[in-house]
């Protein structure tokens, strides 16, 4: 996994469901050209984020982990004119490439990059500011629980929170593997189990690189 059949299947479905989009394709290509790791979401997951943002009628979106801005562009495209994506990135080179990709997509007024440690930057945001309607967590997995708690603090009731890479080819569920990145996902799951204000499910996916998945969380 994935095999040629799963890639072919994704391409087949995408050919019906995803409109060709020059800015998004350029963002992926330019990010690769600039040496960024191939860690952005797949086109179909990008489209899912876009549809989810629209489904919850989101105006304010928070992203943790910008990379080259690929997922930020998908979500930015889903917002009304006065909408906003705030996206956190600590790597200056990634942020610079993202800025260029976001500008090429015409979203420089919609997407704001907060450069620096996400936890430090999130601590500066107040719940009294306009709350977030949608949060996408996709950065250092060790901090997943910290990010979830910050997302919960800063999001409105009914907000959706998506955490990426929560399956990792089944390694999260293999407790014989003690890796801080996997522990970060396990802690997240354990917290959700005991938090009456959150309800969630994990969906496994066959991506363009490997078998993984994401966890979809609703703030009740
Ligand atoms: N969401 C992006 C997309 O789909 O296009 C991919 C994000 S990539 C998986 C993770 C990003 O998080 C990297 O660019 C990395 O530099 C950034 N990152 C990792 N730890 C961070 C931290 N503590 N604070 C802010 N950004 C961080």
TrEMBL record:
Transmembrane segments: none annotated. GO terms for molecular function: O-methyltransferase activity; S-adenosylmethionine-dependent methyltransferase activity. One of its GO terms (biological process) is methylation. InterPro entries: Cation-dep_OMT, SAM-dependent_MTases_sf, SAM_O-MeTrfase. Keywords: Methyltransferase, S-adenosyl-L-methionine, Transferase. PROSITE patterns: SAM_OMT_I (PS51682). Belongs to the class I-like SAM-binding methyltransferase superfamily. Cation-dependent O-methyltransferase family. PANTHER family: CAFFEOYL-COA O-METHYLTRANSFERASE 3-RELATED (PTHR10509:SF14), O-METHYLTRANSFERASE-RELATED (PTHR10509). This is S-adenosyl-L-methionine-dependent methyltransferase. It comes from Daedalea quercina L-15889.
């Amino acid at each position: 996994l994935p095999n040629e059949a799963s890639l072919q299947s994704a391409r087949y479905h995408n050919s019906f469901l995803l409109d060709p989009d020059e800015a998004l394709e350029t963002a992926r290509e330019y990010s690769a050209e600039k040496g960024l790791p191939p860690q952005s979401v797949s086109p179909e997951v990008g489209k899912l984020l876009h549809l989810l943002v629209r489904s919850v009628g989101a105006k304010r979106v928070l992203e943790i982990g910008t990379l080259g801005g690929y997922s930020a562009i998908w979500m930015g495209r889903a917002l009304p004119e006065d909408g906003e994506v705030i996206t956190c990135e600590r790597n200056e080179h990634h942020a610079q490439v993202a800025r260029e990709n976001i500008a090429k997509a015409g979203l420089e007024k919609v997407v704001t990059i907060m450069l620096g440690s996400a936890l430090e930057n999130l601590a500066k945001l107040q719940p009294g500011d306009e709350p977030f309607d949608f949060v996408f967590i996709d950065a250092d997995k060790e901090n997943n629980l910290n990010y979830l708690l910050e997302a919960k603090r800063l999001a409105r009731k009914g907000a959706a929170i998506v955490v990426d890479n929560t399956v990792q080819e089944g390694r999260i569920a293999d407790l014989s593997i003690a890796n801080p990145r996997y522990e970060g996902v396990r802690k997240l799951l354990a917290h959700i189990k005991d938090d009456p204000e959150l309800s969630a499910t994990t969906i496994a996916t066959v991506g363009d690189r490997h078998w993984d998945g994401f966890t979809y969380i609703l703030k009740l």
